[in-house]
Amino acid sequence: MSERSPAPGGLELVENLVNTLDLETGADALDTEEGRARLGLTEEDVPAARELRESLRAALLAHAGHPPHRPVPPLGELLAAAPLVVTVDPADGSAALAPAGEGSLTARVAAAVAQALVAGTWSRFKACEAADCHWAYYDRSPAGRGRWCSMQVCGARAKMRRYRAKES
Fold it and tell me: Most buried of the four, 2, 44, 58, 136, by CB within 10 Å?
């Protein structure tokens, strides 16, 4: 839905996961082999990936000042089960959290969220306020008050609805 550039750093993974579901059409990329492959998932991983996706969406809606779209498990509880390790680069001594072992989707997402917290980008990662969209996007607006994934689509629709409501 969005014409925005991808979210920075590891948040691109989170953005790709959240945006696997098109709420307007109901199409879910996790239903396809290609969609699962893009995230390194098997068919057996899909129920947990969907649960994680919707918990992420609820957190991103909260960043935008909106209530959850539906009851979901708290994101913190899902991420708490993610095995992470601290890695240290021998060349420059920089440290980071990384998924332990093979790196499940939950662990990769937890590492991306941790990286975004350190970088200060997590709070600007939001979900579109349009009820038929809720697409994930990174808010690059100067004041951090973006509301829609796309001004040309979701923003224009919202403004047109407000205009028509005034005219009635």
Answer: 136
Checking if the pLDDT of 49 tops 60, the result is yes
Amino acid present at 14: V
Q: Give the model confidence (pLDDT) of 128-162 as tens digits.
A: 988 888 999 999 988 877 776 766 667 566 566 66
50-58: long-range contacts at Cβ-Cβ below 8 A with a sequence spacing of 24 or more?
51/78, 52/17, 52/78, 52/105, 52/106, 52/109, 53/17, 53/18, 53/20, 53/21, 56/14, 56/17, 56/18, 56/109, 56/136, 57/18, 57/127, 57/134, 57/136
The 3 state secondary structure assigned to 42-85 is: CHHHHHHHHHHHHHHHHHHHHHCCCCCCCCCCCHHHHHHCCCEE
The Cα 30–Cα 43 span in angstroms is 8
96 three-class SS: strand
